[in-house]
Specification:
Elements (H helix, E strand, L loop, with lengths): L4 E5 L4 H12 L3 E6 L6 H4 L4 E5 L5 H8 L4 E4 L12 H21 L3 E5 L10 H14 L4 E7 L2 E2 L6 H8 L4 E5 L4 E2 L2 E2 H13 L6 E5 L5 E2 H11 L5 E5 L1 H11 L9 H6 L10 H4 L11 H4 L1 H14 L1
Parallel strand pairs: 1-2, 1-4, 2-3, 4-5, 5-6, 6-11, 7-10, 8-13
Antiparallel strand pairs: 9-12
């Protein structure tokens, strides 16, 4: 495989922290654009990886950083916005993609890998609608593009099991909106592998890949399974939709926005793949059972220690 010069936007986020080392192992030279490189020095110590402070929303800055690149990877995305009118989602997903496409046109970069989301364009959530609008911009461009639509992504440092584990450690009862919503969680390492293979194979140009794991599971079971992983006996209380809307409204005012009204709108749709993108790329999906218990191994060691101390 020919080594390439690759620029990564959003490379210091959850997926990026797994993707950048994966691309580095293929011999690529990678520039990761970030708001504060001092917060992510662990990536900068990798060979052929450069962390660059850059405002990715500034077209002139993007054009400067894209000069000489063979490909660009756009991982930028948000699950919640500061307000609730969709402006934050439009800036992160649509306006940034438009700026990036303009910068690619001005610098001659012809290859783009774009992160999106499963069920983009369906339902009424700003998150899914703006993901689809960004996709449309990419698809109408002259670039050799590949789009990825993952279900919820799990792995070390995720916002799924790790977030619920943090809540379950302090909450004996966890009220849960849309507990019957179905997901097909996909391992972050498999997502990184999909991006790496797409860069290596021209036949992925102009294709959209839906990425899901080997198991379809309801949200309530994800939470109950997480409780078992951390050794906590917890009550998961499914909420009717009316109370779920109240929870989402209150959640918008809590630190970190654990749930928002837009999240709730996204949860109206099952996040389950229709076409197996991992299989199309020759990737065998990693089951949750092979990864998640390792994420909470420290909890198990602590339980063993506590048991020993009690005699």
């Amino acid at each position: 495989m020919k080594a390439q010069k690759i620029v990564v936007l959003g490379g210091t986020g959850f997926v990026g922290r797994h993707l950048v080392p994966r691309l580095q192992r293929d011999g690529h030279a990678i520039r990761v654009l970030t708001r504060n490189r001092d917060l992510h020095r662990e990536l900068g110590v990798l060979p052929r990886v450069a962390l660059v402070n850059a405002d990715v929303h500034d077209r002139a800055v993007l054009a400067r950083e894209l000069a000489g690149a063979d490909a660009v990877v756009n991982l930028v995305g948000i699950l919640n916005e500061r307000g609730s009118d969709g402006a934050g989602f439009r800036k992160a997903h649509v306006e940034l993609t438009r700026t990036l496409l303009d910068a690619c046109a001005g610098t001659g970069v012809s290859r783009l890998l774009q992160m999106s989301a499963l069920r983009a364009g369906e339902g009424t959530s700003h998150y899914l609608q703006t993901r689809a609008q960004a996709e449309a911009l990419v698809q109408s461009s002259p670039l050799a593009w590949t789009i990825f639509r993952p279900s919820v992504i799990f792995g070390d440092g995720d916002g799924l099991f790790s977030r619920f584990a943090a809540l379950l450690r302090i909450a004996p009862v966890l009220p849960l909106a849309r507990a019957r919503a179905r997901f097909q969680p996909v391992y972050v390492g498999d997502v990184a592998e999909a991006f790496a293979r797409a860069l290596a194979h021209p036949h992925t140009h102009g294709h959209t890949y839906e990425l899901g794991g080997p198991r379809v599971i309801e949200l309530g079971e994800i939470v109950r399974w997480t409780a078992r992983m951390i050794g906590k006996r917890r009550i998961v209380l499914p909420l009717p939709d009316a109370l779920g809307r109240v929870q989402a409204l209150v959640g918008e005012w809590l630190p970190g926005k654990p749930i928002s009204r837009d999240n709730l709108r996204s949860l109206q749709l099952d996040s389950v793949v229709r076409d197996d993108g991992l299989a199309a790329l020759g990737i065998v999906a990693t089951p949750m059972e092979a990864v998640v218990p390792r994420l909470f191994a420290g909890d198990e060691r602590q339980r063993d220690l506590d048991s020993y101390r009690r005699g």
